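Why do we care about 3D structure at all? Because function follows from shape, and shape follows, mostly, from sequence. That is the central idea of this module. The next example makes it concrete: a single protein chain, its amino acid sequence, and then its structure expressed as tokens.
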Amino acid sequence: MLRTILEVTIALFAVYGIYCAIRALAECCFVPRAYAVAVRLRPGEPADELASRIVEARLALCGAAEARVLLLCDEHTLPDEATEMLLQEHSGDVLIVKPYFEEDPPIDET
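And the structure:
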């Protein structure tokens, strides 16, 4: 009786292990297209250096799907024409990040 319970338990763990292996393989090979990689635009960065960082960021995301590129920049380092052409090649979007407080934060009196 104890041997039967042990065999059933081992069989359940084996089936669960096979399920986990198949799921991990599927997640690694078939990444949803909605995933994006973010690259921050540095001040004075040339377009060819940005292109290599975009390719490196895409390769960091494993999977067969081509990840979308999100370029993060602040209001002082806006993308130039060469950077915009690069983003069109990589089907990327620009997100301008603005600080929440322009000056000193308000003082909380509580």
